[in-house]
Write a structure and sequence with these properties.
two-stranded antiparallel sheet, 43% helix
């Protein structure tokens, strides 16, 4: 009996880690396309360019309504990429300011993209409830690998990246954004060449 009790926690940990590994593996390679019931493949990062901006723009991601969009449509544009989740309080707090910024600056000046590290259902419900004024995508856990490529090795949220029109990372921001500082940084961006 003692031998079983001693092995019980070890077995539970091994089983738990196995399921976590399976979940991470599935999350890294797929995202759900709710509009037609098919799976859309989030490109494996091992098959993508090593430049995180190129990797980002090579992605196809699910929108809140379940359609799949190519992020290549924003190539050559100034972009703010905001990694977030519905369960992250600072993420939720900064979103109204990001929406107001997008409306004030227009996509011609800068395009804000929200990359949700969350389930498609949570992203869809949140987007409908709060009327976010910029494109939001659902990546699930796969978005954390993309975020790490942008320098956030700890995986903290929110995490934002400012990219100029030439595809160069200008600045990264960990934690709730100082919107005034972000606005100043956007103004200093050079136009694409």
């Amino acid at each position: 009996m003692r031998a079983i009790l001693k092995r019980g926690p070890v077995v539970a940990i091994i089983v738990g880690l196995t399921f976590v590994g399976i979940g991470l593996g599935v999350g890294l390679y797929t995202s759900s396309d709710v509009s037609n019931g098919q799976l859309a493949t989030l490109t494996s990062t091992s098959q993508l360019p090593k430049n995180p901006v190129e990797t980002l723009l090579a992605q196809r991601m699910a929108t809140p309504d379940g359609t799949i969009q190519s992020l290549a449509q924003w190539k050559g544009r100034k972009i703010v990429v905001n990694f977030w989740a519905t369960w992250c309080a600072p993420c939720v707090e900064e979103m109204p300011a990001l929406s107001a910024m997008q409306q004030a600056l227009t996509p011609e000046v800068v395009q804000i993209l929200g990359i949700g590290i969350d389930t498609p259902a949570n992203i869809a419900a949140f987007s409908t409830r709060y009327g976010i004024a910029y494109p939001v995508f659902s990546t699930g856990i796969a978005g954390t690998e993309l975020m790490r490529q942008f320098g956030n090795t700890g995986g903290g949220l929110p995490y934002s990246v400012l990219i100029d029109g030439n595809g160069k990372i200008v600045r990264t921001y960990l934690g709730k954004l100082d919107i005034d500082a972000l606005r100043r940084d956007i103004v200093t961006l050079a136009p694409a060449m």
